[in-house]
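G., before I forget:
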Amino acid sequence: MPSYVANGISAAVGAGAAIDVQPAAGNAYLIREFFNDPVFVGDMPEVQVAIRDGVLADCVVRIDPTTAVQKNRASELYITNANYLRLTNTAAGGGNVGWSGHQVPVGIVMTDIFTAPNGGNVAIQPPAGEVWKVTEIGCETMNATNHPDLTLYLTDGVLVASLIAGGTRNLVWQKLWNLYISNTLYLRAEPIAGADRDVGVSMIRVPVEQFAAVVDMGAGATLDIQPADGRECVITQFGAETWAGIAPAGAPDIFVALYNGVVLSDIMEDGATSDSLIHNRQYEIEIDNAVYIRITEGSAALNEVSYCGYTRRYYNA
Amino acid sequence: MGYRTVMNDVLVVGAGANQDIQPPATQDWMVTAIGSSVWVGVVPFQVPQVDVSLWDGALGPSEIMRSTDVRGWMRPLRLHINNGNYLRLNNPGGAGANISWSATLTRYFGAGVSNVISDLQTVGAAAVYDARPPAGYDWLLTDFGSDQWLGAAPAGVPNIDVGLWNGTIYSQILDPASGRMWEPELEIFASRTTYPRITNVDPAQAVICFTGVIYRYYGAGVSVVESLLQTAGAAGSIDFQPAAGEEWRITALAGTLWVGVPPLLFPDLTAHIFDGTNASMICSQTNWLMQGHTPEIFVDNTNYLRITNTNAAQQVVGMSAELTQRYAS
């Protein structure tokens, strides 16, 4: 029986040189950590991580820490023989580059690279009947603030302006994503600058039912995210057309509160009140029919607001 | 007729008043988020105006999160509670507020026993509180608190040391002078032989708490917790190497001697993945992995953990880990 652990060390990787972490055909890995010996910068190993398929451009998901400050967070990168990792030793000298993870069933890994055309967009959209969980997003090119040169939206194909990352609101790019997308509500990526952009997305197929929507809210309006009686759901992401706060932080211009039909209690503030660092971290908010989420629009204009998550459980109410 | 497993609620809590999150006597819950209609602090460090404590109806409350400090607010919560040891939310504001929480039913045990091992205890200055499972049990600890905190807001943390102890030697995982270490979620595995020791380093008596669950009952079998300690001589290295056919998942590193300037104070060691020939650094005393997130390092007999003592004196080094697989090698 083979080992379940998928870790390793590539010795004496030269300055600027790269190695690939590529499962054999028919295998897949989840990679959680990266290492480099001897060079660290800003508490991070001096290594750049990109999703690679050998055809389209490599898409950087963790930039060289000497180039830009990165949040010291875990990774959740699902890879296969076709879409794997390229690790670049960005130190001035040679280093031993390492990684740590474990095997996962190859059939669940949906990681891929897409091309978002200049002036257009690309849909990252599962086929009908499937739900995918997105964990990491990278791009072939970083913008002036060293974040993916993309804007990213949750969309139902009709409402296309509910932003979850991009523009000058860059800190959110450093979170570990936890997005549940389906054929009817999915991701849309657009290049910011004037060129095509390849977009690398780490994702897996998950056996859950998506719970998500995008709604065009009026100024100051409220939206209740209330599962039907007997349904329990988990919300993992909010988006909005209008954001507020001081760049590069900021948050969707909405208040997110738990609500029981009588009183409201905020879990996340709008960007104008607080940059709400919680927004820049992974979160899961559990709701049901009795206590659910009320979103209050915070700007003075129409605002396309989105959320995504999954149904955790049905029960006989 | 089905039943709810989402245990959320929203309630109006008066100025200075308390609201308990207390499961029924037949249920275990895990609290995952806490909110308020009033947020306080300096942007972007605002947090809900709620003090969150473990409480058993008599001792404490022992504070895990405060409305004046960011500790614990900027990460997913995993606060395990039952009917005997539960959460007390206090509204420290001058007016009433709507306080809320997100929680999930983790276990209905009816006439059985709770899986939650969260507990609190009054501990004198410099005294210790051991989170030691009974024989046949493994525990997972997810958070710690105290009613005595150290550090100026918004960077205060519970004034306790948290380490691993095996009855003979001790190695430290958390230090209140190293505020960065308190930011990520915690995942510390305790066995009957090696378990967390919490030391009250405040000059005053304190009520100290921990939250967690029974990770596994193995009875007369074998623990799956691989948390280990060893003494490393000056500049010496210790290999934490699974036996052939075993695989471990490492979630914390520990050292006795710490260096740096608070709040950037870390164990004086380096940690590498090592294959017997080549080493690749995981973290060092100047670049500490766990100030940003809980690590998840998988090792086996081929590529394993090497900790090197970088201090001029001998120290105890260690790790928290679980056995994830045993196979025929």
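Residues 132 and 205 of chain A are 4 Å apart (CA to CA). Chain A has no helices and 29 strands.

More on Monday.
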